[in-house]
Structures are given as C-alpha cells and as structure tokens.
Write a structure and sequence with these properties.
single chain; 157 residues; mainly beta; Ubiquitin-like (UB roll); 4-stranded mixed sheet; two-stranded antiparallel sheet; 3 helices; 8 strands; 34% strand
C-alpha cells in the first residue's frame, strides 16, 4: 500500500475489539480477511472471497468490491473483466473483526459468479445423496445472466 494511504488501527483489548467504535480488522497470518458478499435487496449470499488491506481500503474508498485473488496472487476489482461491478451499500464486521460482510448491488449483467449465475452458491449438497463416488450436488440455480465464454473467452474472473 502506498505510504500516503490511511491504514487500519491495530486491535486493542478484547472489550475494545468487541464493543468499541474503532474499525480494527484482524487479518490472518497471510494478511487476508474473509469477505461474505450478499445482495442488498434479497439478502442472498452471492459470493465469498478474501481481501487484503489494500483491497479493503480500495473498497471503502471507491464503494466497489475489491478482493485479493489467492490463485492469481493479485488484487482484483470484481467486474473488471465481466462488467459485473459490486456497488457496496454497507460493510459490516463480525464481533471479533476477523470476517467482513459486504451488502451490494450488482451493476452489469446482474451476476456475481464467473459462471454467469447471480450467485456462486448455485449447487446444494444432497445431504441424503451419497454414492460410490462421494456426496452429490444438485444444481439449484440454473439461469445464467451471461455466457462466460463470450465475456471471458478462456479466462475466468
């Protein structure tokens, strides 16, 4: 992060962390914090990703979802390829400030998932459905807002 950027305060006591009014996000040993993303209108979980301090700061400053891709080892703005930008309506943290919750509106095709579906959580585990290969998944969200091959070509967001 550039030196002139604001930084986050360090956590104080347990009481300050849990009851205080200072945002002190607790990043893990890899410098990441989990972020759950939901639709502001329906409350539906759209996606889960990680943020580093730079992604979190950019999200706060721009009100658009920025994340850290562990697989690519880099910062990314959701929608930079697909046009499905996450407009942040609110950002919350949990009681010990080690998880974030972003409530968003999707601008673009209306999809948070690189598969073209609105949500990344489009399959449900069949709790009674194990077989010789393992546990079964059932697709519960089929509708796609866009064709991933047309939007991404061979790459995916």
């Amino acid at each position: 992060m550039p030196e002139d950027q604001p930084t986050f305060a360090l956590p104080g006591s347990k009481a300050e962390l849990e009851e205080g009014d200072l945002f002190t996000p607790r990043f893990n040993d890899d410098g990441l914090i989990p972020a759950i993303v939901t639709d502001v209108a329906r409350g539906e979980i759209l996606m889960f990703a990680f943020m580093n301090a730079e992604a979190l700061l950019l999200t706060i400053q721009t009100r658009e979802g920025h994340f850290f891709s562990r697989s690519r080892g880099k910062l990314w703005r959701k929608g930079e390829d697909s046009g499905n930008v996450l407009e942040v309506a609110s950002l919350r943290t949990d009681c010990d400030q080690d998880v974030l919750w972003l409530s968003v509106r999707i601008r673009g095709h209306g999809s948070a998932c690189h598969t073209g579906r609105k949500t990344c959580f489009y399959r449900e585990l069949e709790l009674d459905g194990s077989n010789s290969r393992g546990f079964s998944l059932k697709e519960v969200v089929r509708d796609k807002a866009f064709s991933p091959s047309e939007v991404y070509g061979q790459k995916s967001e």
